Structure formats: C-alpha cells, structure tokens
Amino acid sequence: MAETAEKYTCAVVPCADYSEAGAALARAIGAIDGLGFVRPGMRIVIKANLVAPLPPSACATTHPSLVAALTRMLTERGAAVTVGDSPGGVFTPASLEHNYRVTGMTEAEKVGAKLNLNTASHTVSIDGAAMKRLTYTDYLDDCDAIIDFAKLKAHGMVGMSAAVKNMYGVIPGLIKPETHYLYPEVDDFADMLVDINEHFRPRLSLIDAVDGMEGNGPTAGTPRHIGAVIAALTPYEADAVAARLIALDERGVPTLAAARRRGLCGELKDIALYGDPEAVRVADFASVPRQSISFLKGSRFDFVGGIVQKALEQRPKPVPNRCISCGKCMRLCPAKAIEMRPTRGKKTPRIDRKKCIRCFCCQEFCPEAAMLVHRSWIVRLLQK
Ligand code: SF4
Ligand code: SF4
User: Fold this and answer.
1) Distance in Å, CA 148 to ligand 2 centroid
2) How far, in Å, is the centroid of ligand 1 from the Cα of 340?
3) Would you say 157 and 247 are in contact if contact means Cβ atoms under 8 Å apart?
4) Distance (Å, whole) CA 233 – CA 132
5) Which class is domain 294-383?
6) 361 in ligand 2 pocket by Cβ < 6 Å?
7) What pLDDT score was predicted for residue 293?
8) Domain 5-280 part of CATH 3.30.310.80
9) What is the pTM of this model?
C-alpha cells in the first residue's frame, strides 16, 4: 500500500451488510479522495444500475441505501444530484417511476436526489475503436460530472457486470438490443463498452459488492454475499478488483482485456490499491465465464476446430415450465432469432441457433427467469 491517501486510485472496503454500507462507502471514497472534484453548485448524475424493476433483495440493482448515502455526501458538498438509468425495455416516465419505486431509489429522493424522468435521447458521432455513432439519454448532458455506481453480478456475455458494463445503461432501453446486434462478437462488444466509458469518462466509479448476484445473472441469478464496497478513479481499476473478488481471471474478462489493449489500465498488481481484495474474495462464486470457449485457446484443448467450438459455446436456453408466454424475449431479440411455438399447451420460445448472436438480452430481460445461460457438459467439465 502507498503511504498517503492521495496515492490511492482504488479502494476496496469490507462491508458485512447494508446497515453499515454508508460508512464503508465513505471510507472507500475517502481513501482515494474520490469526491475531491466536487464544488458547490455542481450538477452530478449518479448512474446507478437499475436494469429492471426488481426489489433490492433480488440483488440485480444498486442498493438504495448506498445511493442514498452517496447522495448525502454530495449534497453536503453543495452539489445537486440526479439519479438515473435506462433500464431494459420501454423507456417512459411511467416505467421509470415504477422502477424507482420497486428498486427503492425513492430512498435517495428523500435525502435530496432528483430521480430522472427525462426519456429523450439523441445520437452523436464518436471516434471509438468500435463505435462510431452513439445514441444516449439526454439527461446525461445536463450535468457536470457522472458517477458510475454499479452492482457486481455474473453476466452471460462479458462474464461480469460491474463498472464498465454499467455504462451501457446510457443507451435507451429499446435501442440496447439493436446495439448488441451491431457487435455480435464479444471482443467487439467489449471494445464498444470501453468506447462508451471513454466518451463519458465517469469522474468516480463505485461498485456495490456487498450482496452480488451469481449464476444466471445479471437479472435472474442467485443473490450471493460478497461483502465489500469498491471505489476507483476509473471503471477499469474498479472492475479489476471486482473480478478478483468473484475469483474471475482478470485476463479473461473481455472488457478489461479491451481496456488493456488501449493502455487504459494495467493489471491488478499495478493498481495503487487501498484494502485487501483477498480478505473478501469469494473463491466459489458462480460466474458465467465469457461467452465463447476461447479459454481453450493456447491450452491443450486448442485442437478443437471452429465447428466444435460453435457447438460448445454458451447459448440461451428456454425453460418451458417457467415461461409465461409473454413474448418479451421474442420482441427484444435483436437477431430475430426467437419464435413463439406451441409447447405443452402453451407458446414458448424456440431459438434459431444459426441466427442467435448470443447477446443474452432474452435472458437478461425475461421477467420469469425462464431463459438460462446454457453451457455444454463438456465445457462445464473442462472448466472444473
Ligand atoms: S420473456 Fe421469458 S417468460 Fe416471456 S416468453 Fe420469453 S422465456 Fe417466456
Ligand atoms: S436469442 Fe437471445 S441471445 Fe440469441 S440473439 Fe436473440 S436475444 Fe440475443
């Protein structure tokens, strides 16, 4: 550890539960002087993860006690705070109000935050490595700084959802699947996520890793206690620590690999880190390893060819007995790979594997957790 607080750029602070999360957050932010940029009168957006209208107990969204604690810290410094996100699906004031109620963001409103209801968006040209045109929500232009406040979860396509992935929520809900379709390969998608982060450059990146989500994340997985709060000056440093907490190999996280290719971050060992990730590491966290089986490359299993690799790739798999036949997955699928077909007296999704780009939007936004991330038994065996 460095000797003075000024030298830290990232902090991980243990936190047993949400009753003490505000204090842990203050300690993590204080260790890196994360709010040193705030001046009276500044307008600050807290970009939370509000992916779906799910209660805090589901562990899919940033916990309201943490968002409220951050709001208090900011308003004490004289800043005006807006909390927002663009969840999946329709993006209307009514859907946002419902989301804020269910996710508990009204707790932040009570201590002075405004909850964004502006659903307008616009498109700009950007000079990203992968992305050239970005459509994003207007309210992000009405601020002086963005604070990225993510939730730590397993994710079907990029392995984990944390600070870098959270910024995908700048894109309006119904545009997200279309954007996925433009970047069907996981490395391109990761490059695009880094482009978004570089465009907005959040001033501070925070991760709620007190209770995360493992397994079928990022919306239908299982809550898992991790026990930490992370604060960092860049989303890449925050994610490098987050990967460590859930025992993911940071070199295998596509977003971190994309950031490294551009020299935006080093390895965990190079970070001026306050706190010890090993003290809160969950060694048996059920992550979803990256979508393709490229982990085989360079290994003794590298002999498998493209066709075999395709057969072994992770893919979405409907669970008919959980499905309520709402058709949301079919409507959201950017590749038009889903048809609703009669199965056991009701209509359930049938996926055309040739068309599917494995973006996992269907899994992310299924309201009944009836779409799983399927891994072949061979891959499961090899990954043990
Ligand atoms: S979104 Fe889920 S519940 Fe709705 S049709 Fe698709 S699999 Fe079934
Ligand atoms: S079937 Fe699911 S994973 Fe495949 S392209 Fe459609 S939404 Fe994406």
Assistant:
1) 27
2) 9
3) no
4) 26
5) alpha beta
6) yes
7) 41
8) no
9) 0.87
